[in-house]
Structure formats: structure tokens, C-alpha cells
Amino acid sequence: MKTTAFINGKVYLSNEQFAQAFLLKKDNFLKVGSNKEILSQKPSNIINLEGKVVIPGFIDSHVHFFYSAKYMHYLNISSAKSFADIANLIKQYQSKHNIKQNSVLIGYGLSELNLKESKLPTREDLDHMLEKVALFLWRNDYHSGVYNTKALKRLKAFKKNIIDPGSIIELDEQGWPTGFVREMITWRVDSLMSNSHIKREANYLKDYVKYANSLGLTGIYTCDLRNSTWEQSLEQIQLLKDELSLEVYHQLWLTEPKWLEDFINKKETITLPDNHKLGAIKVFADGTVYSKTAAFDEELAQKFQQKALKPYTENSDFDKYVARINKLGLAITTHAIGNYAIASLIKKYQKVSKTNKARNAIIHASYLDDNLLTQLSQSNIPVAFEMCSINYKFSDQLHESFLPFQSALKKQVHVGMSTDHLVFPLNPLNNIYAALNHPNKEQRVTIYDAIDAYTKGSAYFMNAEKIMGQIQKDYLANFILYEEDIFNLNNFEQLKTIKPFQTWFRGKVVWSKKKEDK
């Protein structure tokens, strides 16, 4: 079989180690070493890198990729400065797309901080903007938002004094829903979508993969298969088969027992392309700081001016739930932001396994003190840090325990990196820039540390560290070429504008700067 040699490069391996050249055979790296060592293998083809930097392809360890692809075609209201602006944007969008009464108009980017009214609209405000079609506007944290009355009625949630387990539905003085909702009920918005709308969305994913490749991404641990729509979303992805040039590992969002059981009953009949894997079930230990639903201890709860909430996973049977999922060959990835939620979760994971062979993990893990870091290290529990959240309003009130990257590495905690996209931009270099410029200087890391976390660290997080995340023999040939030496920049601000020269997936070029520039 033909082989291809890449010579005269600055090839980053990991842990600040470099090579000069490497050899590919089909999908994999066959050998890594010096020019002489690689050329002695008598390769079929030779590519002269001319000094370019090569690093492993980036892997985002927690992202909502398919949802992000779809949402690029939904209504972005982040530019709105008033309710009137929102109304105009909705009118323009509806005029262009003509959303039918059997579907739903979804908007995103809602923030009361941007509006002159300094508050969120109610369902009645939204009814004035769009009455006969279901409407939902996501707040920036994607854990809360506002429905109009039509949407609430279709969800069977327009009831006096309604209680919906797992959801927080704000009620007015008479006990009727105001439209503002948090947590589980927000995620049911997709059930309002028409079948014709669903079919259109499969093609959105193909274009978004190319965008991801242009940023150097070759792997994602994505959370898109949700509750009532898990199967239809999977079918949309399966339609594209080999057209998705990413390693796609799935975290299934099955927070409603009915749909978890539905998936378990059908799991053995599911067939996936070679680059897809069902990796984990995602659960929630708490909400967000932004929506005041993160589970902090008393000290941090007081700092963030919220109640000290009990973690959702505090339920005495949660460890049994984890054990059951692990026996199915799946991990548990848990959303946990507050320190109380993380502490509770570690105890539950430890009860199931001291060594964590199933690779149960924690998404976000935003507030970690020294004791929690020690427990994570000793229990072999990986975390996915969103360093890019430092640059946004969600972290206005920083605390010394916020995303302690350097301390985590010193404690030998396994750290992957993620964006939670669409919450934060998908570009990995934004995340790396934030890691190098942590506002707490003691928690800043080197560019080597950040790239290791974004490659082999993320691969470890998704239990794939033996096949991807590094440039070494037998690993999947997923890598990026840069014209700039990203390891020797005059100023880290340059990271904001640098783009890959090429991105390779399984031994093939899937994005090229030259091609795009033509």
C-alpha cells in the first residue's frame, strides 16, 4: 500500500517534544522521526513541509455541534437593544422564512443586560410580536429562555400553578406562567418542530463540518441527541455517512427517563459510521451562574448572591444510575459548575469505581479548590475546561477557584478543553489564548500545556487516547499545518488571527488555505 512522507517540518508530539518528519499509511501515522529515518522507509510520495508547524488535530471535549449548525439558520437576536428591536427581528425573520403554525420560530442571543428595558420579555410581550406561531427565545446561557403562549400551550405547559419536575417555570401573581423558564422545559422546544423543518437541517451539518475543519478541529465530543428527538437527530447524522470529516463521539442528552429507556432498548440495533461512537450519557448536577442555578457551598452562593442549592445528583440512587449506564459500555458526563455540585458528584463517582475505568467525567468543573483537585486526581476523573468563558460576562465575578488550570496540571488532573459551542465561539485558538492569559496569573499555562489539553487531554476525556490526540505510530492521522510558528509568537494576541494552512483528517486534506483563497 502507498505511503506518504512529510519531511522538513516542526512536528509537535506532546510534552514539549518535537520531531522533524512522519510517515502516513492510509488513515494512520506509520512512523515519526527525523527526515533520514522517514526517507529510509522509501515512501511512495514525499511532501516537503518547508518548516511548517504540525500539531495534532484539535478535539472539543464538549460541544453542541449539530445544534450549532442548525442555530446558524435560526434567528439571532443578540444585536437587539430593546423589545422593539426584538419585534422587528422576528417580523423580518418570519417574513423571510414563513414558519408554519405546526412548527416553531427559535431565536437565540437574548440578554436582559443588552436591553434598555433591563429585563426579559414575558410571554405576553412575545404574543404581541408573534401570536399564532410558537416562539421561543434562548437566553445566552442556553439553560433558560422565554416562550410565547402558543408554544406553552403546545407543550401542555400553560396551566395555573404548573409544576414540571426538572424545570423551573416562573409564575405570575395569579399563578400563570410568565413565559420565562429554566432547565428541562427549555430543551423540549425541538419537539415543536415540523417534519419538513427537520429534513432541511441535515444539510446544515455538512457545511458546519467544513467550518470546524477550517479552525483545525478534527474531533468532537458532541451533545446533540436529546430526549424525544434523539433518534431523528441520529438519523439525520447517519444520512451523511462518510461526509463528516470529524471523529464524532456522542454524549446523549437523555434527561427524561422515558427517552433513556427508549435508547437503551434500541442501543444494540444502532449502526454508525466508522468515525462515530456513542460515548456517554449526559446528566446535570446543577445549572449556571448566569441563571443562578449553579450549586455552590454557602460561601460562594453568598458571593454570587444566590441561594445555596442542592445538586440535582444528590439523589441517593444516582450512583446506581451511573453503575447501570457504565455496564452498558457508556460513560457518564456530568454538567457541574458549582463547587458543591462537583464535590457531591465526585463522591458518587467514587462510590461506583475508585479507578474510573468507564471514564465518567465532569463538564465545565468551573470552581475547584485544592481539595477537589486532589480528589479528581486520585479518582482519575477527567474535566473539560472552558477557558474561553473567562472572556465573557458569565464570569464577571471571578473567584480564586475559577478554572484553576495550572493547579489542575500540578495535581495531575486529566484536563480536556471545550467550548460548549454555541455558548462560546468554536475556534480552539480563542480557548488557548484565554488559557495563556488567565486573569489569575498563577493559573496561566504554557502554550504546550494548552495544546496538550486540547488534543491528548480531550482524547483522554472521551476515552479515545489510544487512537487519537497525538502524532505517533498507529494513531489516526488527524493533524493541522500552520505557516506561523505558534510556539514562538512575539505576542499571544496573534493567536486571534492565525488560521491553519491545512487540516488533515484520516490522512486526507479536508481544508486548505490555498484552496479557500482562490
Kindly describe this structure.
The chain is 30% helix and 23% strand. The protein has 518 residues and is α/β, with parallel strands linked by helices. It has three domains: 3-57 and 477-512, Urease, subunit C, domain 1 (Roll); 71-192, Diaminopimelate Epimerase, Chain A, domain 1, CATH 3.10.310; 197-468, TIM Barrel (Alpha-Beta Barrel). Strands 8-15-16-17-18-19-20-21 form an eight-stranded parallel β-sheet. A six-stranded mixed β-sheet has the order 3-2-7-22-23-24. β19 (361-364), α12 and β20 form a beta-alpha-beta unit. α6 crosses α7. Its EC number is 3.5.1.91.
Number of domains: 3
Kindly name the structural category: alpha/beta
From the spread of the alpha carbons, the general shape counts as globular
Tally the beta strands.
24
CATH architecture of the largest domain: Alpha-Beta Barrel
Instruction: Please count the helical segments.
Output: 16
| Sequence of strands across the biggest β-sheet | 8-15-16-17-18-19-20-21
Helix content: 25-40%
Average pLDDT for all residues? 94
CATH topology of the largest domain: TIM Barrel
CATH class identity of the largest domain: Alpha Beta
Fraction in beta strands: 15-25%
Task: Record keyword descriptors for this entry.
Urease, subunit C, domain 1; hydrolase; 8-stranded parallel beta sheet; alpha/beta; EC 3.5.1.91; 518 residues; Metal_Hydrolase; 6-stranded mixed beta sheet; 3 domains; Diaminopimelate Epimerase, Chain A, domain 1; TIM Barrel; N-substituted formamide deformylase
Short recap of the structure:
It is built from 16 helices and 24 strands.
